[in-house]
Design goal:
- The protein is an alpha/beta fold.
- The protein is 52% helix and 15% strand.
- Strands 7-5-6-4-1-2-3-8 form an 8-stranded mixed sheet, sandwiched between helices.
- The longest helix has 34 residues.
């Protein structure tokens, strides 16, 4: 029986994959447990799929899948999870910043009675922009969603099969693996691990993609933006009422001889701007609801 399944989404990793598979295999031989390695190609534009096929010919523990198009990192992770059969499931990135040697540490911690053991990157070796954007995203998300997510934790970790089964049952159209793990619960802990610098290439997450992912995840997981706009509307209404009362009293006292045209136009423009922002946010939520009700698959496996 398979004890540990190791899953990694693949994108632009043709030069890294041989070392990734070799290091994982070395660790698993040391642990002396039955295992499987699942690599899922997110329709990478380079030669990753051919490299994966060559590796699979020489490694009976390696299972490879290719999606029909580029669906994104987290749907690709979900595709790999759906194919795993191990009692424990390790999820890690393919760029070797998540070091395979740390699997042993995670697994031993899990055997102490934990169902979720996540890797805590105490000293992240990412670029300044990525670290800053990650920190900002989690601060904003934690505030809007009302939950606590540690920005030092990402996908890397080991999870019991029952946890993975519940993650796969989460039917949200927007997929974000770390938040799903946080949401399903179970007995969880973190373990400090070494984070490696990226050995080849650059991250596929540009600033635009990070902002888009953050926006989609926040809207998918939280209704607090709607509540904030309700509060904003209430504040503006109360302020307008008090301002109107003040102008009315001043008029009765004869202190205002000519109404202010400029202030009137500015007030109208401001209120219309707020109204359209509120309608825009509401429209976004309706759009996300529309996508959810269509119930389209979040990934399609083309080859395996």
């Amino acid at each position: 029986n398979i004890v540990i399944s190791i899953i990694s989404p693949v994108y632009r990793a043709e030069k890294i994959l041989p070392k990734l598979v070799e290091e994982i295999s070395t660790v698993m031989r040391k642990l002396n447990t039955d295992y499987e390695i699942i690599l899922v190609d997110d329709r990478s534009p380079d030669n990753s799929w051919q490299v994966m096929k060559n590796l699979a010919e020489d490694n009976s523990n390696l299972k490879i899948y290719r999606l029909s198009r580029n669906f994104g990192q987290h749907p690709t992770i979900m595709a790999g999870l759906s194919k795993s059969i191990g009692e424990w499931v390790v999820v890690m990135d393919c760029d070797l910043q998540d070091q395979p040697k740390e699997i042993e540490k995670l697994y031993k911690k899990a055997l102490e009675g934990y169902e979720v053991v996540q890797a805590s990157r105490v000293q992240r070796k990412d670029g300044r922009l990525k670290k800053l954007s990650s920190r900002m995203f989690y601060k904003i998300f934690n505030y809007l969603a009302g939950i606590k997510i540690n920005n030092e934790v990402a996908n890397f970790g080991i999870y019991h099969k029952k946890v993975i089964n519940q993650v796969l049952n989460v039917n949200d159209y927007i997929k974000f693996f770390p938040l799903f793990i946080n949401w399903v619960g179970y007995r969880a802990t973190t373990v400090a691990v070494e984070h490696q610098e990226r050995s080849e290439g650059e991250s596929s997450y540009s600033l635009g993609k990070l902002i888009s992912l953050a926006f989609n995840v926040i809207v998918s997981f939280s209704d607090k933006p709607l509540k904030l706009f309700v509060s904003l509307g209430a504040i503006i209404s109360a302020t307008s009422f008090l301002g109107g009362a003040w102008v009315f009293i001043k008029t009765l006292m004869g202190r205002i001889s000519e109404p202010g045209y400029s202030s009137l136009i500015l007030s109208i423009c401001f209120l219309f701007g707020v109204t359209f922002m509120c309608l825009g946010v509401l429209g976004i939520y309706l759009g996300k609801t529309f996508n959810q009700t269509k119930n389209r698959p979040v990934y399609i496996i083309d080859e395996e």
